[in-house]
Amino acid sequence: MNREQKILLFDTIIDGHHADYLTHLIRYWVDNQRVGELIVVTQQAFQPYFQDLTDQQAGATNVRFVPIPASDVETVHRASMLTRSFKEWNLLLKYIHAYQPTHALLMYFDLFQLATWLGRSAPCPISGIYFRPDFHYKQNPGFKAQLNGLRKKVTLKGALRQRSLANVFCLDHSAVEGLRQLSPAANIWPLADPVESYSITPTEIGNLRTELRIEPDRQIFLLFGYLDERKGIEPLLDALKELPVTEQKAICLVLAGPVQPDFQEKIEQKIGAVGGPVQIVRVFREIKGREIQLFFELADYALALYQKHVGMASVVVRAAVSRKPVLASDYGYLGHLVQSEQLGAVADTTSPSAIRALLQRVLTEKIPYSAENLQKLADRNSDVYFAETIFNHL
């Protein structure tokens, strides 16, 4: 490895998987005592996590944290989608000029496509993590949707053909071949959706079950993550309301994750309409690290009822780590993965009646799934494999 290598990681977003991805890369760098320098440029809020990863670690002497001022973060986040790409790009260039890295990694390439194509030239090679490619999805028949799809494809092709763009790491593996066809000279790599695994004891699982007061003889369905309209909570609650009482009595739904007050009020109203027989447990707070896996170990099924979701979803990998079958949307890469790998079952998650039918199938027939394929998916998406893939190509 080149001793002069200096890698800059850049992300103005720090919630959810953004912090996790930075953590995986920093931990791998420190644990393997990589030669060179790693510069982490992100929000000030990430500093406590950075300190935990690097304090008194022998491999951390060449890792530096650079906080982005809150005013700069607010400026880029408040911009329109059209101008945000350029504002983020110009902010990145400011840090590149200040720290002179040999390579910069965009932790969220999706935002940067337009500016990568039409913005100022970068003085060093750039790579990026691509979360949600949708150029290869079938477009809606309307003219506006067709025009929007064409615009996205033209922008993506322009970005991929820039000389400064060294690598694109794609979380949606079904898009890799299409990306390579858009720009044969670009380096496109499938990337793991990383999840750190922990050893969880039966006692811990029992304690959580007691803490949540889950009633005996109920199947536990876990809907985990940032709880908003995208997660399919509303059609799920409508589906639960349609179930016969005997089947309602067999279900415990656990909603686990942070939620905005206005959306919480909306789903509380729907929960009230579901009625008494279904047990619904609310854990409306951020859940991190080891505790995340504990919730998945507790569950019988993991729900990935996303509404027209593009790309991969880490909830599927977390379910795989705990060997739990997934009930998912039939849309896009997520639906394809669950079906083709026999990870669980899918349905049209925009339809309460389709969700209801899926739940009834689970309760009355069980669903076939491959424990072996869940294991393989978990192995393919380890935090170490994620970091290795990236650093081996920078």
TrEMBL record:
SUPFAM superfamilies: UDP-Glycosyltransferase/glycogen phosphorylase
UniProt keywords, alphabetically: Transferase
GO molecular function annotations of the record: glycosyltransferase activity
Domain Glycosyl transferase family: 208-369
InterPro entries: Glyco_trans_1
Domain of life: Bacteria
Protein name as it appears in the record: Glycosyltransferase involved in cell wall biosynthesis
Protein source organism: Larkinella arboricola
